Structure prediction request, 332 residues.
Amino acid sequence: MKLSIIVPVYNVEEYLERCVRSLEDQDLAKDEYEIIVVNDGSPDNSKQLIEKLQLEFSNIILIDQENQGVSMARNNAIARATGEYILPIDPDDYVRPNTLANLYNKAHTLQVDVLFGGFEIFDREGVSEWKTQYQAQAEEVWSGVDAYFAARGPRVKDPDRSWGILFRRSFLKEAEVDYPRDVPYLEDGLFVGKVFSVASRVGFDNEVFYQRTTRPGSATHSSLIKTKKGLDGFLVAIQDVDLFLTKLNHSEQSRQLLNHLKAKFILLPLTITISNHRWLGYFIIIFSLRKLGVEKIDCAGVRSVYLEYARAFNRSAVLFPYFYFKITKKNV
Prediction:
């Protein structure tokens, strides 16, 4: 089996058939790839729709479970997968026809742990807003840490995605990387941060195959990040990074990327509460961080504006809101 495509489903009946049919309209034989759809306790007719599509296509596997969240849906799909590479797809998105063979062949030929696929973002009216430009990155094979930052930049959209990226299944198992439970916002960012901290070989494909849609109500476009559940998720992410650091013998470069990742999850709940002038919430998070043993941020490996924020936080947690507004104004 070449590819295992994993699709977590919750309340996306309106978009789901387009997604699955796009995955079937490909230049791979049906016995060369599988589409694992996880119905995560969806209250709509998503399950029935997949069951109908199973009558038409032989390579669709349905996992029906009580609601556990997108991370566990993906983990359960990966546990069921048999393909050489895992390809996460969001159910409200779709892919271009006859593009999967090229993606798989490049990953297999280069023997990479991870391969970035190109994507394009469309607004709610279906107008193209932005697409990846991987010409330079596609010319070489990167280390995981270098690839993590090579895929980012001030104009790059959705840098913390895991969808539209191929992950070698045996690599994920050996590295003990999975999606985090109880991290409802930026769970992809935590997952890929851990992946790239230990990946040895990462490639880029410049061909745009993934079509990203803008949907009202999705986690990316909701106010979830500002809720207690979202903010608490960042604290869970910090613990997840700490646990991951104890699992493997990480190189210094790997540890520095994980420091960057941890700093990001420390600073995000602080900056969100500051931006919304929620001062009680800010000091509750400070107290929660101290309960986790976070008094200072290890700045080794921390990059971009996060390094400025981390240094300011280390100067004074009490005065950090003042420093935050000053740094933000400077970087506008």
